[in-house]
Amino acid sequence: FGSATLAGLRVLVSAGPTYEDIDPVRFIGNRSSGRMGFAVAEAAAAAGAQVTLVAGPVSLPTPAGVARRVDVRSAAKMREAVLAASDTADIYIGAAAVGDYRPAQVAERKLKKHDGAPLVLDLAENPDILKDLAATHPHPFLVGFAAETHDVAAYAQDKLSRKGLDMIAANRVGAGLGFEADDNALSLYWPGGSEELPRASKRELAARLVQCVGMRYRAAKP
Ligand code: PMT
Hints:
- By secondary structure, this protein is an alpha/beta fold.
- It has five helices and twelve strands.
- A hairpin with a 2-residue loop joins strand 2 (20-23) and strand 3 (26-28).
- The two termini are 23 Å apart.
- It binds ligand PMT.
- It catalyses: N-[(R)-4-phosphopantothenoyl]-L-cysteine + H(+) = (R)-4'-phosphopantetheine + CO2; (R)-4'-phosphopantothenate + L-cysteine + CTP = N-[(R)-4-phosphopantothenoyl]-L-cysteine + CMP + diphosphate + H(+).
């Protein structure tokens, strides 16, 4: 930490899971703890950026140096918060694990069991925040994350081009890495280049990621 790679830049970071309500007591969520995204927010602030952090439902304190934190629950609310803050952001780093689907209808009352009959939930697809940002002009320098269990490089490079991103940080999930874990390992890809960040703590990786984002940003927008 400590260098001023991002001095003068406004960085928007999303972190954590989203919860999609089924009824007043149940939801569909995922295992993101928010640790990777919070570490990125902290590292960006330490690198001199003015940081806004949009956080899904996590139980983490706001990292040192973060100027503004917006707490949200669902993918729709995360999208609203990210789009509202994106006008004044130079860089967006999407570390959140945004739910791809939500229940098509949220039941007003707690769902009851029906004598062993299966419960069928209709799921509607959530909008893709990164894709929506890429479609607005002008838009911030876009850094996505990709969480994959296999074929990490191929899926990550596909997401880089399909979502119109400037960089993607891919992590293999499972085996003490990725979701919930203290450690992670990242493969960074951008159009025409890549860099491996081997296994380390999420704080160390976040600092290295932020250095790389700073360099790519300056190269793309001299
Ligand atoms: O929170 P931790 O426990 O520390 O775990 C960290 C992490 C594994 C969650 C994190 O490092 C990570 O990989 N985050 C992205 C996980 C993910 O949802 O990947 P994805 O392949 O589904 O999505 C790819 C990218 O699109 C992500 O930048 C995501 O924020 C974005 N996306 C996805 C869906 C959607 N509707 N809108 C989006 O913007």
